[in-house]
Design brief:
Elements lengths: L8 H26 L13 H41 L3 H5 L3 H15 L10
Length: about 120
């Protein structure tokens, strides 16, 4: 490796705009999950199979909400990181002097946002 890192601000700005659209989509999913689809299992009665299905429905719903919230946090963290990088490396001189460690540090919030809650399903 040459020890130099370059930052293409135009590509980064395009990615940042895409993140804005993805953030809107994630927020729409969360809104729908937390309003229209709020955990109301189907009324199947009180037979053993019916209560088991209602419980599975609730567990699946909670899993969807958890994954959507993790995705939302990751998008927010990536958006913040790209904004920081674009701000810090706006000029050619700053981009040419950028160290890989600086950029990695700016992106560290993304990994943190993607971590599942303790005991939660690690898949997104």
């Amino acid at each position: 490796m040459t020890g130099r890192t370059t930052v293409d601000v135009l590509s980064l700005e395009d990615f940042h705009q895409r993140l804005e659209r993805r953030l809107s989509e994630a927020e729409a999913v969360l809104k729908k999950l937390n309003t229209e689809m709020q955990c109301r299992p189907p009324a199947l009665g009180t037979f053993t199979d019916a209560t088991a299905n209602a419980r599975r429905y609730s567990e699946t719903y909670a899993s969807y909400v958890d994954h959507a919230e993790r995705l939302h946090r990751a998008i927010v963290a990536a958006k913040k990181a790209t904004h920081t990088i674009m701000t810090n490396y706006r000029t050619a001189e700053a981009r040419n002097a950028a160290a890989a460690g600086d950029i990695i540090a700016a992106l560290s919030g993304v990994s943190e946002a993607m971590k599942p809650a303790k005991g939660a399903d690690p898949r997104v």
